[in-house]
Amino acid sequence: MFGLEQKPKEKFAFDLEVELTKSPAKAKEIFHKIQTRTEELKKLLRDGQSQDDFDQYGILLHGYASLQRVLKKVSNPKQGKKNG
Known about the structure:
Elements: H1 15-22, H2 24-47, H3 51-75, H4 77-83
Helix pairs in contact: 2-3, 3-4
């Protein structure tokens, strides 16, 4: 009444989430690429870089870690509901 009624909301999903749920093989491929790049970044950080490069590599490393968590959540929806 008067526009105050509650409308059922659809579950929000990011474009990447929708795409990866449709093709789990692509999710595994992306996960593998991220693991490889993460290992390379860690190696570069251990070898020692200039301060600017060190900061940039650290930011990239955090981004890759976040993307890995998203991929795990998308690939295991039951586990994502427990944690989130």
